[in-house]
Structures
1.
Amino acid sequence: GAVVSQHPSWVICKSGTSVKIECRSLDFQATTMFWYRQFPKQSLMLMATSNEGSKATYEQGVEKDKFLINHASLTLSTLTVTSAHPEDSSFYICSARQRPDEQFFGPGTRLTVL
Amino acid sequence: ILNVEQSPQSLHVQEGDSTNFTCSFPSSNFYALHWYRWETAKSPEALFVMTLNGDEKKKGRISATLNTKEGYSYLYIKGSQPEDSATYLCAFQVDSSYKLIFGSGTRLLVRP
């Protein structure tokens, strides 16, 4: 089946630093990738939709200048959390769309901002 | 605001028991309903994509039904095994843009 990887699987950083998370589709090309985050005891919440070669579309309430998304190739999308603060600590997970009705997820990245 | 509810939040069953969970979603503007199985430290794994009212899908011991008119889907597991222990997520797809709105999941623990 389709495999999506994420790197790193976990990261701890100091407040004010930036963190980049990579999402790769390993055995298929994905024109669309999605970024979600999950706070403790809450649902996965869509942050943004990333289309290869174009600007990402952000959901309401998600700051595009804080969460920079780049989808430079059909197999790689990156999420950069700029000037991270403790309230950005969360579980970030990406997914990639392969066929019209299927979305494959990465294993997620646990971000802790001290 | 679209809301997807799952119940129960968690469930402990004995090996061999059959069980079921519920996903409730808006009955208007339905496009598709997805079920995922998510084991700890792994990627969520797609189980079913359901689009038509009355759909019934099956994968081994797991099956799902869909009622779009009343806005609910059931996931059934027959003869639960310890390896079925996971969080089961449902997600409501609003339109062809493929945005998914997730429920908070049902955490299943199957005791040997």
Note: The mean pLDDT of chain A is 93.
2.
Amino acid sequence: DAMVIQNPRYQVTQFGKPVTLSCSQTLNHNVMYWYQQKSSQAPKLLFHYYDKDFNNEADTPDNFQSRRPNTSFCFLDIRSPGLGDAAMYLCATSRDWQYDQPQHFGDGTRLSIL
Amino acid sequence: SQQGEEDPQALSIQEGENATMNCSYKTSINNLQWYRQNSGRGLVHLILIRSNEREKHSGRLRVTLDTSKKSSSLLITASRAADTASYFCATDDGGFKTIFGAGTRLFVKA
């Protein structure tokens, strides 16, 4: 089945230690998104890729970076995680960058900071 | 910025009852979507309603949209324990970006 897969499901890192989260998709969608979701809150868009074009949200901290080496894979790098970065990180895809495109989500990576 | 706000924040009902969740938004939209999120999982797209539509059905789901009141409702009929989840409305920002509300947490008691 076509899907969005995130690895790992749970990640524990130390304060200030860089961490990378990964996402892969078999849907062959053009757009990939990274969201941060804290407990009982709305998913917050960090950035998205339309194909290879990177689009950063204005309020995304510089601490967060992303890479999309090919259509199928996208990575979220947190360079120096702080306690406030503990959250669920969701990857999503959509076929195109249009307002009527439903997004397909992975099951997320829950990040804990020690 | 949060476009959609769901009401109530939490809802607890008995299996077999209907569940109604509401979403209000601030600015003009092209469409509105509803998503479900089971605990510890990703969001799943349920239904999309366009701004020129007033009502849409999908199985036990019924969505209405009132653009004059800038509001939408999601009705789940004959709820099941498996419907226990958080439900999010999502609107566009007038362009191509999707903005999610904070969600309604639905608990269906067996």
Note: Chain A touches chain B through 21 residues (CB under 8 Å).
